[in-house]
Specification:
The protein has 74 residues and is an all-alpha fold. The chain has helices spanning 2-15, 26-47, 49-71.
Length: 74
Amino acid sequence: MPLILLIALLCGLRYFEVWRFATLSWWWIGALMLFAFVWFEFLEPLLGLDKRKAHNEDEKRRKARVEREFGRKK
């Protein structure tokens, strides 16, 4: 997510020609967009990072459900 925010920030700064970003080539921003695409589409699933995030969310929901169901009966 920080990578996407960085790309959006750079696009905005380059478009409005703010400070040193006015001379920044669009190719650098495009290359960063390409890197983000490759990361999220290929490398993250290859490394299993997308499954790990989903597993952590499921685990949090499971713990909350167990606490909700068994926590009241005590």
